[in-house]
Amino acid sequence: MDCAVHGILETREIKQGIMEKLTMIFPLSTSRDPAGRMSIAGHSLCDLADQFGTPLYIYDAETIHAQVKALRDILASLYPGKAEVAYAAKAYFSLGMARRLNALGLSLDVVSQGELSVAQQAGFLPERVHLHGNNKSLDELNFAITWGVQAVVVDSLEELEYINRLAVELDKTVRIWLRITPGVEVDTHPYRQTAHLGSKFGLPIQGGSAAQGIRRASMLSHLQLTGLHTHLGSQIFDPEPFRRSVKMLIELADEIGFVPEELSPGGGWGVPYTLDDKDGDPRPWLMAVCQEVQEQYSKRGWKLPKLVLEPGRWLVARAGVAVYTVGTEKITADNTHILAVDGGLADNPRPALYHANYTACIAESPDAEPTQSVRVVGKFCESGDELIHAVDLPEVKRGDHLVMPVAGAYQLSMASNYNLAARPAVLWLENGRVELLQRRIEAFEDPWWSG
What we know:
This protein is an alpha/beta fold. It has helices at 12-22, 45-52, 61-78, 95-103, 113-121, 138-147, 157-170, 209-217, 240-256, 283-300, 313-316, 350-354, and strands at residues 30-32, 38-40, 43-44, 56-60, 83-88, 107-110, 129-131, 151-154, 174-181, 203-204, 223-229, 262-266, 306-309, 320-331, 337-341, 361-362, 372-377, 386-393, 401-404, 425-430, 433-438.
């Protein structure tokens, strides 16, 4: 059973139970309008789809505010030192979103000149910005160094020397972290693993590159090494790899005589995408990290570091929903029921890239009894253009609106104009207001491909 619910739903008690279950993966403000249609923050999704067109992406402010508060409250209860929550911009970033995240006092993890520029325009202070990336360009490094970001996260020995040469030319002292690869594998899709022995990211502990990086950084004239960073991957639900990697970073630092003033275990804690997925409660993750840092620093007599977490998906995924318009239905020769919508691979490549699982509801009848199992596909010219392999839905007709929850991360940020499709409009719903975060970018109106 996915979002559509089996059985006749006539009593208030049953409907309240359904709503409680749906809130596991839908935004906190999800409810029903007087006609029984799905709404978010008091706005009917059907009405918003009619007004702004589909595919349409919607962010619920209440959910993002609650996620940020929950993370900060848990951190405050577990960690007596300084702690910072830095949003991983790659999850989804636009000027409108950046301004709202800045207003929440978040710091920022960026990986490109575009993200740096948007952060600056949105009013972020440079001391709340960290630049990551395994192959930073000259323009990106010049921007970050000139602006004075809190840390440039160095990814290789070659980059370490390169950044020092740039700093000499610019006559700047550059604060850096080193990204350490501990060789820890995690239970997630291979494309989402980033700290194993063959990873393209970071300085590996095995083989001595990480130790060499720490020693060399302390000798370079225009670099100030303040911290160590690692990132294990994403959609991780086991806290033990985080605990193990933190211990490995601190032991590495101790061997060389370096005391990190800042320590970042990255982000990557998972969120549920369907009702059958694991709970996304971050407490096990935060408890493992906070306890390990305190234990390792205490037994060495070191002052606790500033602990910097870098969640992206966990802060915004649940806050977002994608709304599509239903088009063609057909039955294939092998008796598969196909339901096609007006989006797909161009706005959400995650199923094609990671075999990501989703569920869906029909906005017009979210509580209707499911009568069929369907495969939801997009409109693009690829056989891999599949959004949901199988989901139970009620009877659906052309023009109905299919709503996909947990759409707030790594969909829009990886979206494309494949087949010259329009990028979706993006809305922010807060306190009864509907605000446009990103207008619909029509390929035929914005001929960016022409010379």
